[in-house]
Amino acid sequence: MATSVPVTGALELDPSILALPIVPLPEGEAVCTISPIINSFVTLQEPIVLYPSPNPQASFRAPSFVFYITHQPTGKSLIYDLGIRFDYETAFSEDYVKVLNGLWKTKIVDDVGKILEKGGVDPAKVHALLFSHEHWDHTGFIAPFTNAELVGGAQTFAAEANLSEQVTALGKTPRIIDFSGEAIQPVGAFERGYDYFGDGSVWLVHTPGHTKDHMSALVRVAPSPDAQYVLVGGDTAHHPCLLCTHAGHTQYQLRATFRNPLAPEGAPEVAMHFDADLARDSIKRTKRMEAEPNVMCVMAHEYGYWKYWRDNDEIMFPGLGLGEWKKRGLKGTRLYDVTEYEE
């Protein structure tokens, strides 16, 4: 993912993507800052997340991105996703830990709360935690965020979900975003969005498929008349090339099921997504946003962006983040390139 090559540059865009209807992105003056944080890594095997897999033996180390967002008009801070809880080896069951270490090769950098403190942010003053979905590599450790509103879809906070025990322990009542409610309206390529602050600076959008209530966030980082956005998308796509908008590069699809190499011989394949067709639709809509010259998309496991950002103090928290990304040339290509993989 060479960030020196704009995704909307010389390479021809796929006309089928551009044909998807899109509601004009909302103009406005209210903006946010948004900075990526790395608290953990997982290793993804290519054939688990990509079909067809050009390199079936390949695997790549991927971050679990966390995003620190500050609403400039009010100073309120939000966090989108929390990565992996730092104490997962004692917090989860022994069998679960074996899977996390064996299949996903989990590696912790630090607790998100501690990373924030080192960067001068008090976790107790964070206004809200926005969760893309309920899976273990996104729900992190919420205890330091004692005053934060917990926000997400209904399934994200269901009794059987990862977050349930933590939410109960803190005595929290989550704020459920009902994507079928009266306050929901279309935004960009998405049919269902919620204007979190009411000023168009943060839209929570329904991107179901990987899970039932998966939620992305569209964040305005530059004001009108040339409003620019960053779309953070959790697990909408697990491989960057699934969001590639270029003509002639549409052959790759998500992998709906996979065989767990740790499972006994002959065991049935495991579903990677709640609904693969919905997941494909969410990918298509996210690709349409990626094709917009004023939108930059970043998913949770963007190994390519992490490779180019990891040593850049201006981008990574507590630096400037992704503001003025267009001027700084931060949006990269998503062409498939196995040479970008790192273990």
From TrEMBL:
It holds the Pfam family Lactamase_B. Keywords: Hydrolase, Metal-binding, Zinc. InterPro entries: MBL_superfamily_lactonases (IPR051013), Metallo-B-lactamas (IPR001279), RibonucZ/Hydroxyglut_hydro (IPR036866). Transmembrane segments: none annotated. Its cofactor is Zn(2+). CDD domains: metallo-hydrolase-like_MBL-fold. Residues 63-273 form the Metallo-beta-lactamase domain. GO terms for molecular function: hydrolase activity; metal ion binding. PANTHER family: 102 KBASES UNSTABLE REGION: FROM 1 TO 119443, QUORUM-QUENCHING LACTONASE YTNP-RELATED-RELATED. Belongs to the metallo-beta-lactamase superfamily. This is Metallo-hydrolase/oxidoreductase. It comes from Calocera cornea HHB12733.
